[in-house]
Specification:
- The chain is an all-alpha fold.
- 57% of the residues lie in helices and 0% in strands.
- α2 (30-37) crosses α3 and α2 packs across α4 (55-64).
Length: 101
């Protein structure tokens, strides 16, 4: 099994708990969310317990729970300090590291 850093594992558990809370606040059962997301209740439970799942399934569940736009906004690089500072610069097609020693 691949090593997963502790902060990532904590984030998985936190995200899972937040999605579970959102589902409950919306008055939806696990079966209803799983069905709408086109996945199984077992997979939804994995998400809610912070276990790894495919990103497309995770994002579909997030969409079903009405949170996809907020997730996308939260990951917008132009909403970071660095992104705002460099907003007027043209992004490079590729990032290359120069290893001149």
């Amino acid at each position: 099994m691949k090593y997963v850093p502790l902060p990532v594992r904590r984030a998985q558990r936190t995200l899972g708990q937040q999605l579970k809370n959102q589902r409950k606040l919306m008055g939806l059962t696990a079966q209803m969310v799983a069905q709408r997301a086109g996945t199984s209740v077992i997979t939804l439970r994995k998400i809610e317990q912070g276990q790894p799942v495919r990103s497309d399934i995770l994002l579909t569940v997030i969409k079903v729970l009405g949170m996809l736009d907020r997730v996308l906004d939260a990951t917008d690089p132009y909403q970071t300090d660095v992104g705002r500072l460099r907003a007027n610069e043209q992004l490079p097609q590729r990032v290359r590291v120069n290893y001149d020693y």
